[in-house]
Write a structure and sequence with these properties.
Strand order of the largest sheet: 3-4-5-8-10
Structural class: alpha+beta
Distance between the termini: 32 Å
Order of helices and strands: HEEHEEEEEHEEEH
Helix content: 25-40%
Number of strands: 10
Strand content: 25-35%
Number of helices: 4
Low-confidence stretches: 1-30, 32-40
Length: about 150
């Protein structure tokens, strides 16, 4: 997994090393659970632990030759065209740390599993991605749960 990230994450290796891991993730293989090994099962996909929505939340970054696709699951949600979060089951401080990590990713496309009256994905520029992250950080700092 680390082979994908050195050029992306040279600024904060301690945070990255702590949060990017495949060792605790498993997939169903018939009736057995087997460890998820990114290089053989999901090439070019990295699992990023992003607690906040829940303690076990994670995002997936898929890299191809041209774009970076960030699947954010429930970590970020596109509600009426505004990217938000939900920490009713999680932790405000965990989410702030997860947003710090996500800010480093610079995706081209962000895909959520949740949206209300809007698309579940958005093509983003680096500037737009930072605006999304900063808006969420600001809402957390002001005590909002969504």
């Amino acid at each position: 997994m680390t082979a994908i990230f050195p050029s992306i994450f040279q600024t904060n290796e301690r945070l990255i090393d702590k949060r990017i891991s495949v060792c605790d993730y498993y997939i169903a293989n018939g009736e057995n659970l087997v460890p998820l090994e990114e290089s053989t099962i999901l090439p070019n996909v990295s699992i990023i632990q992003t607690p906040g929505y829940s303690p076990s939340s994670c995002c997936y970054l898929y890299l191809n030759d041209r774009k970076r696709y960030l699947f954010v699951g429930h970590t970020l949600q596109n509600i009426y065209g505004n990217w938000q979060y939900d920490i009713s089951k999680g932790s405000r401080s965990d989410l702030k740390e997860s947003l710090q990590l996500l800010a480093l990713l610079e995706p081209d496309v962000v895909i959520s599993s949740v949206s209300i009256n809007y698309s579940k994905y958005e093509k983003v520029s680096s500037k737009r991605w930072q605006q999304i992250i900063e808006a969420c950080r600001s809402r957390i700092d002001n005590g909002f749960y969504h």
